[in-house]
Amino acid sequence: MQLPMSGVGEILKAVGDFGPFQKWLVALTLIPCLSVAFHQFCQLFMVPHVPHHCDTSWIHAIAPNLTEEEQLNLTLPRDADGEYEQCSMYSPVDWDLDSIVAYGLNATEKCSSGWVYPSAQPPSLLTEFDLVCDRKDLNDISQSIYMLGLFLGSMIFGPLSDRIGRRPVILMSVFLQGLFGVGIAFVPHFYVYMAFRCVVGASVSGITITILSLATEWIGVSSRPKAVLTSHCCFAIGQMILAGLSYGIRNWRLLEIAGSAPIFAFFFFIRVLPESARWLVTKGRIEEAKKVLQKAASVNKRTIPPGLLEQLKPEKQTKSGSALDLFRKKHLRKVTLIMSCAWFVNSFVYYGLSLNVTNFGLDIYLTQLAFGAVEIPARASCIFLLQWFGRRKTQIALLLLSGLVCLIITGIPEDQPVVTTILAIIGKFAASASFSTSYIYSAELFPTVVRQTGVGLCSMLGRVAGIMAPLIRLLEQYHRAIPMAIFGSTPVVGALLCILLPETRGTELADDTGDSQRPAEVCANANSSSENEHVKGKDGDQDKEYSQSTHF
After folding, report:
1. Are 219 and 48 in contact (CB under 8 A)?
2. Is 94 helix (H, G, I), strand (E, B) or coil?
3. C-alpha to C-alpha distance for 18 and 222, rounded to whole angstroms
4. Which of 222, 336, 454, 543 could form a disulfide with 534 if both were Cys (CB 3.0 to 4.6 A apart)?
5. For the domain 5-49+128-500, what is the CATH code?
6. pLDDT tens string 84-103
7. Whole-angstrom Cα distance, residue 350 to residue 80?
8. Considering the entire predicted model, what is its pTM?
9. Ranges of each domain in the chain
C-alpha cells in the first residue's frame, strides 16, 4: 500500500522527533540569526546625534585670523535658547571685517557650503553623508528602503524555496548577505548605501523564512516551538551583541565589517546542511528523500523499518502548490488573510518600538541592551505559553498587550523618560513573543506544498509594515503622540481578527492543500476527532490523516 503524503510524518517519527540530527540543524541556524539581528538595527548606531553647524569658512577670505568663536558669532544666527542655529547661516557678503562687525549681518539662508562637525567625532553615516537638516529624513527613508528589501526578499525567496528547495535558497541568501554586508563598508555615496542595504534586507528575508520552514519540516510537533524559539532567542542575543559591538566600534565602516563578515563562517557547514525530506517528497524526489531520512536516522542512532521506507513512493500526479491555492481554496484563504494581517500588525508595532530606541530619552546603548535582553525571556516564554494556552490564545493576548502599552505611552509626559522606556520594554516583550508565535503558527497553518509561499506572503505583509514604520515616525513633527497611537491601535485590531483562526497545538503538519475533502467536511471531522484519529479518504482504500492546522 502506498503511503499518502502525510506518511512522511510517520517516517520522521521513526527517525526521531528531536534527536542529535535536529539539534545540529537548530545549532546550525543560530549563526545566521546573529547576523540578521545586526543588520536589522545597526543603522540606529551609525547615525548618532552630533552637534553641527553650517560651514561659514567664506569669512576666512576676509579675516583669516578670526578665532572659531569669533567666526561663529559673526556668521551664525542664534535660536531662542541662545544656541547657534544648526541649519541656517547669515548670507555671505563681500564687505570688509570692520563693516561686518559694525553693522552685523541680517539676511539668513540655509547651509549652502555643507556642515562642520566636531573634529574628534568618529566617522558616522551622519557626518559622512550629511544626514542633517533638510537631509535628516534620509535616515528614516533609508530604513524604509531596507524594509523594502525585506519585502522583496519575501516575495522572491518564498516561492523560490518552494520551487528549488530550502537548502539552495539558504546558501544563496547567506552569500548575498555576507557579500553586500561587507560591501556596504566601502560605498562612496549614500544612495549606493541604500541600494546595498536593500539587497541585504532581501537576503535577511530569504534566511529567516527559509530556515523557519526547514526546521519546522524536520522537527516533531512537541519540539517544534522549542526549536524555532531557540533561534529567535539567538536573534535577541544578536541584538545585545550589537549594543556592545557598536559601543566599542564607533567607526561605522568598521562596525559594518565586524557585523557582516562572520556570516561567511556558515559556509564551513555546507556539507551538513540537509534538504527538507518533506519538500523532496512533494517534488517526487523519493530516492533523495530516502537518503536524507536514512542519514538523519543514522545520526539519531535510530532505524527506519525497511517496509515503512519502501512504501514512500511518489503519487501518480504530484501537485505543486501555488500562491493561487492560498486564495482559491476557502479554508486556506481565511488563514492567509488573517495571518497576513497578524504579521502586518506584529511587524508594525515591533519595528515601531525597536526603531524608536533613540527617542525614549535614555542612553541608546543601554536601551538597546535592554531591548535585546527582554526578547530572550519573551521568546523563551513562548515555549510554555504555546504549550499551555495554544497558538490562538497566545497570539491574541500578546497582540493586545503590545498594542495597549503603545497607547499608554502616548499619555506619558516627555519629562518621564524612565517610565516611557520601561513601558516600551514591556511592549517590546509582548511584540517579540507575538512575533515568535506568528512564525510558528503560520508554519503550522500552511500545508507543505505551499508552506513557504504562504509564510513568504505573510512575511511580505509584515515587511510592508516594516517599510511604513520608519515613515510613520516622521509624523512626530506634527505631534509626538501620533506615531505611538498608530503603532498601538493596529495590533488591537489584529488580535480581534485572530479569534477566527483554528488551533494547531499538538497537530501534525499537513502536506497537501486538502483537495479530497470540502472544508466543511474537514471542519466537522477535525472538531470531532482527537489528535491521533484518522479521517477516511474519499477513495475508500486508505486512511488519510488531516491536520486541524489547515482544515477547519
Report:
1. no
2. coil
3. 9
4. 543
5. 1.20.1250.20
6. 888 888 888 888 887 878 77
7. 37
8. 0.74
9. 5-49+128-500, 53-116
